[in-house]
Automatic annotation (TrEMBL):
Protein name: Phosphomannomutase/phosphoglucomutase
Gene Ontology MF: a single term: phosphomannomutase activity
CDD domains: PMM_PGM
Cofactor(s) named in the record: Mg(2+)
GO biological process: carbohydrate metabolic process
Domain Alpha-D-phosphohexomutase alpha/beta/alpha: 9-145, 168-270, 276-387
Segments traversing the membrane: none
Record keywords, A-Z: Phosphoprotein
Species of provenance: Mogibacterium diversum
Homology family: Belongs to the phosphohexose mutase family.
Amino acid sequence: MGKEILKLQNGSDIRGIAMNGVEGEDVNLTRYNALAIGAAFAHWLGFKVGKNSFDLKICVGRDPRITGPDLADALMSGMAYLGVQVSDAGLASTPAMYMSTIMPYYEFDGAIMVTASHLPFNRNGFKFFTAEGGLNKADITEVLEYAASAHILPFEYNAESVNLMQMYAAHLRSMISTGVGGDLSNMKIVVDAGNGAGGFFANNVLAPLGADISGSQFLDPDGTFPNHQPNPENKEAMESICRQVCETGADLGIIFDTDVDRSAAVTSKGQPISRNAIVALAAAIGADDYPGGTVVTDSITSNELHTFLEDNLGLKHLRYKRGYKNVINKAIELSQEGENAFLAIETSGHAAYSDNFYLDDGAFLAVQTIINAANLKREGKGIEHMIADLAEPAESVEIRFNLTTDNFSEVGDKILEDMNTWAGHTEGLSLELPNYEGVRINYSLDGHEGWFLLRKSLHDPVMPLNVESSSEGGVKLALALIKKFLEGREGIDISVLS
C-alpha cells in the first residue's frame, strides 16, 4: 500500500478526496485504501479487545455522500477478508454508530462511520469507535501504519443489515417523553438537516411524539448538499433556518451538521443559538444537575461566556484547546481525577455530556434543548430565557494568515514565542493565564476592552487569529497593533490586514 496512505490522517479521523469534481483536487481516498483500512482496523481492534478476527463483530454506517456506499462496501470487504462478522447500518449518524457498541442487543466490538462531516461533496472519511469511545490520534496512526503494509484482496461477503437508527430514534423519543412528562403536541419545531443524515430526527423522533414539524427543511439525504452547507457554523445555513423559523412561526429551530454529531438552535424570534451561545445553553441545561461543575471548552470562547458560566451559573470554566477530541479527553481526564467535569463542548457545536458517555452527539443536545423549550413554553417563556444573561461581544472577527515556508511549524512556534514576549512589555496588553493553545492576550486600548488569540492550525500551514471587543472600534485598534508586530516577518503572509 505504501506510506502515502498515512497522509489521510486528520487528527482522530481519516479524511481524503474521494471523487473527482473539483479542479486541482485529485482522489486520494480510493476504494483500495478503504479495503486496506478496513482490514487494518480489524487487526488493530483484535489486539485491543483480545479477540481473534473471526470472533469480531463490526458495524459500518455512512452519511449521504455519493461515495459513501462504495467506501462502506470496501471497508466491509477488507474486514471480511480477515474473517470479521460485518453488519451494515446504511444511512446513519455518527453518534448512533458509537451507540451500536454499547446498545443492548447490538454491542458491536467496533464501528466505523463513513463521513467527512461538513466538508464538500467530493470529500469523505472515516470515524472509528469502540465501547470506550472514539479512537484517538495515536490509534489512527497505528491503524494507518497497519494499512500501509497491508496486502488485501477484494473479498465476497455477506453483511447483516441492521436497523440501528430505528432503535436509536426510540432511545431519543424515550428521553424526550420522560423529560417533558408526555408528548410534544404543544411544540412547533423546524429541523434543518442540510440534506445530511439528520432528517430522521424530525421524521422518527419528533413527529411520533406529536410535534408539528411541517416547517422543517432539507430533510431528504442528498450527497451533493444542494441547499446549503450542513454546518451550524456556516453563516448561510444559520440564516436559512433563522428565516424559516420566523416565517413558519415555530417555537424552536434545530440544525444539524452532516453526520449529526453537532447541532445548534434558533429561538422563536429567529435568533441563532450557536458558537458561544450554544456553549452557554448546553451548560445552563446541566447546571442544576451538576452544581459547581466544570465546563471544558475550546480556546476561542469569549470573555462574556466565561463570565456567564462562572458568575451567572456558578460553574467552573476551563478554556482548553481546539479539536473536539482534545476537549473531550481533557474533561474525561478531569473526571478521573475527581473533578465534576460534566460537559465538554466546542463552539463548533460538538457537545459531550458526562451522562451520555462523553459522546459528542448533536441529537442528544437537541433532545435536551427541546425538553427545556417545551417545559419553558408551559411557563410562557422561550428557550432564550436560559441564556438571557449572556452578553455578546460587540465585535468578533477571525483572520487566517498563511504560512509560506516549508518549515511552517517552526515559523509558527517562533512567532508565538515572540508574541508572548511582546505582550509582556507592550502597554495595554496582558497575557491570559493559564492558556493551553497559542497565545491569548487581553487588551485595553483607548477605552476598548477585548482579547485576541493567535494559534497554529491543527494540521495546515495557517495561523488563525481571533479578535473580540466589548465595544465598537476595539477590533480595529487591536488589529493595527498586531499588524505592527507581524510586519517584516518572513514566512507569514499578512496581506489580509492591508
